[in-house]
Amino acid sequence: MTEKIKVFLVDDHPLVRDGLANLINQEPGLVVCGEAGNEPEALALIATAKPAVAVVDISLEKGSGIELVKSLKAQHPEVVTLVLSMHDESLYAERSLHAGARGYIMKREAAKKIVQGILAVHSGQLYVSEKISAQLAEKFVGGRKAAGGLVEQLSDRELEVFQLLGRGLNTRQIAEHLHVGFKTVQAYSARIKEKLNLANATELLSEAIRWSDSQQKK
Q: Is 65 in the same domain as 168?
């Protein structure tokens, strides 16, 4: 009897995890071996669950999906990661791949593509949309940077801080969310202002909210 592919789910919404687990467990060759709602919990449980594939959401209640992907690549290189997110793939798919993920699926497409994505990354393939595949090919051939405006210049951590500012979190709350120091978040904010050509904290907050609203409308 062929051994099933073990899948671990990381998402901070229990209902989302339940829905994904139902879809995955219906596939004869797949089984969900565990789940977690945040980055620290996921790292602790994956060490004992020993999945072949981890399906990771970018936005977590504690920690960061991107940082979790990096940690899994370093600590558990045998685990292949597939990112599942509501965020714009034009900005986050390539970042996810750079972090070590082997695929990226938008949440609105999860029901149709989650099983296909898991099987693809487990077999060693990259799994991204045709749009992202074309975008990556264009960058490789032409050496041009993908469209994304000034926000594209932000590092992974800077983008996380910018996103959390747009969601209404203050500096102290962001520090707690990302498990970093208060002054570290202040330093990230200063770099964001510089890269986005913003004069002060008020402009930074306004731009973060505007950008966050625009992402939700996509």
A: no
* Helix (H) or strand (E) run with residue 76 in it: none
Cα–Cα distance measured from residue 111 to residue 93, given in angstroms and rounded to the nearest whole number? 18
User: Is residue 59 located within the same domain as residue 127?
Assistant: yes
Q: How far apart are CA 192 and CA 95, in angstroms?
A: 17
> What is the maximum span of the chain, computed from C-alpha positions, in angstroms?
64
Indicate the residue type of 182.
F
Cβ atoms of 83 and 111 within 8 Å: the answer is no
Give CA–CA dist 113/198, Å, rounded.
Answer: 39
Distance in angstroms (rounded) separating the CA atoms of residues 15 and 11:
9
Q: For residue 41, is it within any domain?
A: yes
Choosing from 88, 109, 140, the residue where a domain stops is 140
- pLDDT in 10s for each residue of the chain, 218 residues: 578 999 999 999 999 999 999 999 999 999 999 999 998 999 999 999 999 999 999 888 777 889 999 999 999 999 999 999 887 777 788 889 889 999 999 888 878 899 999 999 999 999 988 778 777 666 656 554 444 567 888 888 898 899 889 888 899 999 988 888 999 999 999 999 998 888 888 888 888 888 887 776 55
φ/ψ of 117, rounded to 5, equals: -65, -45
Do 130 and 37 sit in the same domain of this protein? yes
Structural domain of residue 71, as residue ranges? 5-140
| Contact present, 166 and 209 (Cβ < 8 Å) | yes
